[in-house]
Amino acid sequence: MALSDADVQKQIKHMMAFIEQEANEKAEEIDAKAEEEFNIEKGRLVQTQRLKIMEYYEKKEKQIEQQKKIQMSNLMNQARLKVLKARDDMISDMLNEARQRLANIAKDPARYPALLDGLILQGFYQLLEPKVTIRCRKQDVQLVQASIQKNISIYKAAVKNNLEVRIDQDNFLSPDISGGVEIYNGDGKIKVSNTLESRLDLMAQQVKNTHNSHVYICFSPLDFCCSVYCWFL
């Protein structure tokens, strides 16, 4: 039985509706999948960029921290150099003041003989030789002779050996030095320099080599001279 035109049109409309529905469903499926893939890719890109940004700022933070450390180190070095310079300047000032006061030590008749006794006896102990020669300033000869007589007995009692001492009358120490003596062994090859200047220089070197800054701060020029004098003894 042949279909009427109305039936044919009806079937065609039905088929078209079915095709359109399938097409819409397919389109929706494609859109959903595209949306899902888009969101996944967007998330991946966002995460990648977030990691890059975090890495960038972490790197920047490390650079800033490193720069701060370098700046702090430079500042500390500059401060240390200033402290060292101030310390050296203070030591130089005290040493200059001490050198100016050294001459007054030899002019003190109550203290200089005792100082010479200590310097000469120390020289004997340092050399431990049977024969020694002493050089002194010409004006100190009598004081040195008296000190020798006093110290020989002390030395003999301490080391149980004899000691022969002579004063070099041909080569006196310069009258420009502040005092003290030089003591030589028998052949003159070994010298103990116990002049006031040499002892001050030795102490100055020890003071400069120490790392205790309080040592320098607590000394006034007068205290430093007194410390030098006590150290001689």
TrEMBL record:
Top-level taxonomic group: Eukaryota
Keywords of the record: Hydrogen ion transport, Ion transport, Transport
InterPro entries with a match to the protein in the record: ATPase_E_C, ATPase_V1_Esu
UniProt GO cellular component terms: proton-transporting two-sector ATPase complex, catalytic domain
Membrane-spanning intervals of the chain: none
Keyword DNA-binding attributed: no
Pfam families from the UniProt entry: vATP-synt_E
GO MF annotations in UniProt: proton-transporting ATPase activity, rotational mechanism
Family statement: Belongs to the V-ATPase E subunit family.
Role according to the record: Subunit of the V1 complex of vacuolar(H+)-ATPase (V-ATPase), a multisubunit enzyme composed of a peripheral complex (V1) that hydrolyzes ATP and a membrane integral complex (V0) that translocates protons. V-ATPase is responsible for acidifying and maintaining the pH of intracellular compartments and in some cell types, is targeted to the plasma membrane, where it is responsible for acidifying the extracellular environment.
Protein name (Swiss-Prot/TrEMBL): ATPase H+ transporting V1 subunit E1b
Taxonomic source organism: Poecilia mexicana
